[in-house]
Amino acid sequence: MAKITALIENTGQVLTCARDAADLVGAQKNVVVAISGDTIAAIGTPAEIAAAHDLSGAKRVNAMGGMVMPGFVDCHTHLVFHKSRVEEYAQKVIGRTSAEIKAMGIPTGITATARMMREATKEQLADSAAERLQHMLAFGTTTVESKSGYGLNTATEIKMLEVNQILAKRQPIEVVSTFLGAHEFPDDKPRDEYIAEILNEMIPEVGRRKLAEFNDVYCDDGYYTVAESRTILEKGLEHGLKIKIHTDAYSHIGGSTLAAELRAVSADHMNYTDPAEYALLRDAGVVCVVMPALDFSVGHDRPFDARAMLDAGVTLALATDMCPGCWLESMPFVVQLACRLYKFSPAEAIRAGTLHAAMALDRGDRLGSLEVGKQADIAIFPYERFEDMAYRLGRGRARKVLKSGEVVFDAGTA
Ligand SMILES: [Zn+2]
Predict the structure, then answer these.
(1) Roughly how many angstroms between the first and final C-alpha of the chain, as a whole number?
(2) Taking the CB of the first residue and of the last residue of the chain, which one, N or C, has fewer CB atoms within 10 A?
(3) How far is the CA of 93 from the centre of ligand 1 (A)?
(4) Strand partners for 178
(5) Cα(35) to centroid of ligand 1, in Å?
(6) Domain at 251, CATH number
(7) Domain of residue 12, residue span
């Protein structure tokens, strides 16, 4: 009989988000969640659990009638950066173009962040990212992917990945590290020279020191070509780095087809993806990560077509895309945008932010659903039913959050 270390009781709805859930979220009532160490031991009625388990040493976690669900997995972020680009944003919202804003002397875009990044210390970067992670935790997020890509030289890219290591140790959220040297081109060296630096210096060091789990490229018009992306992604594979790709955000140059061919773990953005590619992505098992808040934040003129992708059977995951151009810590807000602007059902959106997002980080077997044997990463929200998460706009703070079976956030009586 497993020794139960924690018991979540007085629950309202419990969502398992289990792989085989017919309603996609596995909504149940009148059940409790029993945890043994860092693992889910059982889900059942209070009587069933009491009959089959030793509850004598279990810490009681009172859900206060709230909704219990897997912690969110935020599977695409640029969490580590220095300062902000608030001046650029304040001009963009009134309709000024990047060129007009630059002419006003305000630095814009990835290269602006890259310049700020070079002067920052690891401690400064870790402090500001940790503050954002605190907010993410309060919104029920228990795992966050964090990309490099504002270095655009070897030393600064490595510095960003070292900050991911610091963050993983000093706060409860699991941080998944992704190398994104191919995010942009630096303005201080020729294109070919920078690509050679990625291939010959950055990737070998990242692989040798195990500084990242994934290798990502920005494959789009004006960024990396399909051929360049393929070379960089294949080089990463040789060094043990799994494949992610940013593509089809602002053009259609073939990045999704490349993702299917290389069996990428995920392909992210998908605004310009050709419907003919949906079946390729689905059949190759590529999870497509879509980010409603990024489109919202930049005022994208071509939103991705989530409904068509869902109807084609593509596995969609949701993420914040937290970055200086889209400052968002809340996955519940992503669920709200996904439902209202992109025709996700509330159940589809919650599953996309939990199980499917875990799959986008190659963690579908360990995270993203409440099932016996999986890690006890759990968020409790003050909702009567799961649709409330989509309906109550601007809300989204969790009541309690557990990471690996421990309560790591508690909003008190909220
Ligand atoms: Zn991104």
Answers:
(1) 35
(2) N
(3) 20
(4) 147, 214
(5) 35
(6) 3.20.20.140
(7) 6-70+369-410
**CA of 291 relative to ligand 1 center, distance in Å:** 9
pLDDT digits (tens, 9 = 90+) for 301-332: 999 999 999 999 999 999 999 999 999 999 99
Mean pLDDT of the chain: 97
Same domain, 23 and 92: no
Bridge partners of 243, per DSSP, are 215
Task: Determine the pLDDT at residue 413.
Answer: 74
Per residue in 160-215, pLDDT (tens digit) is 999 999 999 999 999 999 999 999 999 999 999 999 999 999 999 999 999 999 99
Q: Give the distance (Å) from ligand 1 centre to CA of residue 171.
A: 23
Calculate mean pLDDT across residues 270-298: 98
Separation of CA 78 and ligand 1 centre (Å): 6
**344 and 393 both lie in a single domain:** no
Query: Do residues 65 and 76 both lie within one domain?
Result: no
Q: 100 alpha carbon to ligand 1 midpoint, in Å?
A: 24
142: its two tokens: 């228990």
Residue 1, in any domain of the structure: no
Q: Give the number of domains in the chain.
A: 2
Q: How far is the CA of 76 from the centre of ligand 1 (A)?
A: 6
The type of residue at 191 is R
What order do you get walking across the sheet with 14-15 strand by strand? 27-28, 14-15, 67-70, 378-381, 400-403, 406-410
392: in domain? yes
pLDDT at residue 1 above 70? no
Rounded CA gap, 395 and 393, in Å?
A: 5
Are 254 and 395 members of one domain?
no
| Separation of CA 295 and ligand 1 centre (Å) | 12
